Amino acid sequence: MPYTLNGVGTRYYGRRNASQASGTCQSCNRWVTLSSYDTRECFCVLFIPLIPLRRFRIQSDCASCRRHYRVPLDAFQEQLGAAVDPLRQAVRRSPRQPDAHLALVRGLIRFGVLVEAEQAATDAVAQIPNDAPLNLLAGSLAATRGDHAAATPFYRRAASAVPQDAAARVALGGNLLDVGLFDEAARELEAARQLTPDDRVVLSLLAQCYESLSRWGEALDLLERLRSGEAAAATDDDLLARIRKCKQALSYPLSDDERRAGRRWWPWRAKARGAVPAGSVKIGWRPAVLVVGGLVVALAGGASAVAYWEQNHVPVWFDNGLTTPVSVAVDGDAFTLPPGAPLERRLAPGTHAVVVSSGRGELERYQAEVVRQPLWLALDSSDFYVYNVAEAHVYRHEKLGYSADPNFRSHSEVFIGFERFHHYSGVDYVFAPPPASLSDSSSTSVTSKAALTVAADVDYNGLANMRYAEGKREEAERAVRKALALAPCHANAHRNMVTLLRITGRADEAVSDAQRWIAECPDAGVEAHRAYQDAALAGGGRARLVAEYAERRAQRPSDAPSHYLLGRVMDDPERALAEHQEAIRLDPRLAWAYVALAYNLMALERYPEAAAALTEVLKNPAHDSSAPYLYAVAAVGAGQMEDAAKRLAPVARTHADHESVWNARWLLALALRQWPAANALLQERSASGDNSPEEKEEMWSRRVELLRAQRLFSDLDPLLASAASPKPHAAIVRFERLMEEGRYAEAADWFDQALAKEPAAPSIYRLYAAAGLLLGGERRVAAQRLQAAVAGGGVSDGQDVDDSAFAALAAALGGRGSDEEVLRTARQGHFMRLKHAYFLLGARAAAQGDVARARRLFQSSARACLDLGFPLEAAQRAVGGRP
Fold first, then answer.
1. pLDDT score for 138
2. 314-319 and 384-388 strand pairing
3. Which among 225, 199, 201, 221 is positioned nearest to 210, based on CA atoms?
């Protein structure tokens, strides 16, 4: 063991080929991080290394007591090669033999080279994916270094391969418990308990799951069984403390042992204090001065030595966000950097040549500049650097204000990307999550802290979504391109790239990018073709797409996606319906075909069938995020709102953060006239919102919807007139209200005054203003307005109307075209266009004096208002009152 006295002695310097694992230290018996690494022992003065001595392999270095084992490095490498090389040769000879892989991985574990062991286990699983022992070993290695999320897939495969193996079930259940998936962990551990009813480990872990789920009664039953199973358990303080916690939650009486187990100390356990000396010792002033002076000199010298050492050993964190280990060479000194937790090293100030390589060659080369701090700042400096390999990770920089008073607490965060080598300072928690609270926080002060962590939940595609929401389109595009550079077949990033190119007016580039996605990612499947179709349709290429995918279907008549993709580009829902039904017949698991089938059925007003199709979609846990709301819409059309609310309840629990789920619950609450539930949803959204201008505008719109549904117009009108209301939306709602009240002339005047030049106003409202005048009997003025609306040019809302639908509806108001022709055109687009088509046709019939036909058309318009929005009230009024 190295030893120093007043900064003079021997110390370890350098750290290479490091491995870390969680375990029990054999010296202090604590559960700690145990490290193994290569290092060199040096003779130092004032902690400054002067003479390099021998190199060692450190084994099981305890993070708490620092005790460890060490072996001369050359002897260690010789022993490692002699033991492991034959095992590697055996694997190369028999790459599909599980026993050879197991022997290699276990041999590497015995020598403490856990990074190589994990890589060998991962390679073995890639070749033999369903071997249970290999998956268990790979999972345990990932879990040992603390990456329980990475361990989960291995444990799942092991449990799936041998479902009757209790050890595999326990390993999976324990790992799920560590990642916080308590419900699933409880299921796995319950299955393990069925296999081994008396296993104390299973009982303890299952009880821990129930405690985390607040299922106190079940947890208490298991803990009592553990206590009665062994005599020693009756006095186990940890077990008694857990029983005490369960009983307190259930308001059960406690025994004396359980009460004592919850206390940190007990009077009769206190240590006796030493007696105070009977007399005092007097020291003369001269010796006192010498002692104090010596202490001052020693402290100043020690502080200077520490500051000098800190000044010349700057922390640099190396972070590998790629999926495979890389080799990092700093000024020629190489070390392995695995994926996962960043690795800290110390570098001297100056310029360092960093070369990063993988098995396929050199990845990048960089000149890293580490700045030297002044000596007086180095002693208490929090400066450090982060080297982000390939700029692969996005970082979360948080600033937190802790206080006992909730009103004084604060939290903000920024996300940092595109930084290969970056300098940070003033960070309190480096690559460690900040605590939820500080014990020394008071109610009258705020303690400020900062944390830097890897944003595990935000990749570059997620960063692109944030930048786009902030209106920074160029930064969003840069982030998407970075996401694709790191993962060339990243489906969401490709979809975002095609969308960005489309909305920025680069339709040809969007089509080319989607075609490149299809060509370069053979496993992209349907999603890549959907992006290509959307890009081509935006450029008016429907006829070309129909011909292209008809040829594809002819070449692959038994391929379900080919039928689905052809139906998707057809503008006739009747013809598309047949293609999607055939796709489902060929592959009942193709969820997208059910969604497309539902769109066709709703365009044909066959709402019960559409709801049934979407029910099948919801059975797939990986369904598209838009499916819940689409199902709620179909349920409204089918009159199956109560059934839909019951069916969506489990979906809401598992996908509570999905916008579509909230929208579905909101729509059903309004349709069922469940006003308390709707108010609760508003409060839920308000509590989880980010208080951005967009979110405030959305909340305003939802409050308006609720007031209109409740017909609380005395509350609605002041809200519309409020200065805080978003002006374009308030003006739109006022126009709709005038139409709903039958004040058609006022609606037309208000349109001219507030909406005619408003970009946010739906284009079809030009036709509604004319239709209102027709209903009011002002046919000449309506004809003039209709002529002006047609002369106003194209439209901008793809869902409400497009150019062809707008032209057909305008012609219908002018008296041209049959009802069937107009409805056929409306059905070729989004099914929500039907409500507008029926209403405008009803206005035409009313102006022509055909009251019965007008009534039928207005009733159809009201039925087609599946979102319960405009023109529902106006159509019901035209029919003759609300139902």
1. 87
2. parallel
3. 221
Is 502:534 a contact under the CB 8 Å cutoff?
A: yes
CA distances from 477 to 467, 488, 514, 674, 692 (A): 9, 15, 15, 43, 22
Phi first, then psi: what are they for 235, rounded to 5°? Answer: -115, 15
The segment(s) of the chain belonging to CATH 1.25.40.10 are 163-263, 461-540, 543-605
Closest CA to 102 of 159, 140, 72: 140
> Rounded CA gap, 323 and 147, in Å?
13
Task: For residue 307, give the H/E element and its range.
Answer: helix 285-312
Instruction: Tell me if 223 sits within 8 A of 252, measured CB to CB.
Output: no
CB 433 within 8 A of CB 451: yes
State the angle between helix axes of 833-847 and 803-813 in degrees (0 to 180), rounded to the nearest 10: 20
Q: 543-605, what's its fold?
A: 1.25.40
Q: 242 pLDDT exceeds 70?
A: yes
> Which residue, chain included where needed, has tokens 């640099």?
316
For 15-56, give the secondary structure using H, E and C. Answer: EEEEEEEEEECCCCCCEEEEEEEEEEEEEEECCEEEEEEEEE
Distance CA 702, CA 869 (A): 11
Say whether domain 738-883 belongs to CATH 1.25.40.
yes
For residues 277 and 269, give the distance between their C-alpha atoms in angstroms, rounded to a whole number: 24
Dmax over Cα atoms in the chain, in whole Å? 121
What per-residue confidence (pLDDT) applies to 298? 67
CA 668 – CA 675 distance, rounded (Å): 11
Q: Give how far Cα 189 sits from Cα of 154, 254, 439, 693, 722, Å.
A: 17, 28, 35, 46, 57
Q: How far apart, in Å, are the Cα atoms of 751 and each of 586, 664, 740, 806, 876? A: 51, 31, 14, 18, 22
Q: Say what the alpha-carbon torsion angle 399, 403, 406, 411 is, to the nearest 10 degrees.
A: 0
pLDDT in tens, 708-744: 999 998 888 888 888 888 888 999 999 999 999 999 9
Q: Which are the contacts of 592, defined by CB distance < 8 A and separation ≥ 6?
A: 526, 530, 564, 624
Token pair listed for 755:
């909406």
* CA distance linking residue 832 with residue 866, whole number of Å: 8
Q: In whole angstroms, what is the distance from residue 465 CA to residue 557 CA? A: 38
User: What order do you get walking across the sheet with 447-454 strand by strand?
Assistant: 410-416, 395-402, 447-454, 429-430
Closest Cα partner for 396 from 436, 454, 469, 461? 454
Nearest in space to 651 (alpha carbons), one of 636, 639, 668: 668
Look up the CATH number of domain 163-263.
1.25.40.10
- Answer yes or no: pTM beyond 0.90: no
Per-residue pLDDT, 296: 67
Closest alpha carbon to 487 in 466, 460, 467, 509: 460
Alpha helices in 230-284 (DSSP H): 237-250, 256-261
Spatial separation of the C-alpha atoms in residues 206 and 200, rounded to whole Å: 10
d(CA 689, CA 681): 12
Whether domain 461-540 has CATH 3.40.50.720:
no
Q: How far apart are CA 248 and CA 198, in angstroms?
A: 26
Report the pLDDT value the prediction gives residue 272, as an integer from 0 to 100: 38
Contact 179, 187 (CB under 8 A): no
Reading the block at residue 487, the tokens are 């993962």
| Residue 629 φ/ψ, nearest 5 degrees | -70, -40
Q: How confident is the model at residue 560 (pLDDT cuts 50, 70, 90)?
A: very high
Which residue in 105, 151, 154 sits closest to 132, CA to CA? 154
Two structure tokens written together for 791: 């002369």
Mean pLDDT, the chain, as a whole number? 86
List the structure tokens of 112. Answer: 């403490």
Give the integer Cα–Cα distance in Å for 720 and 708.
12
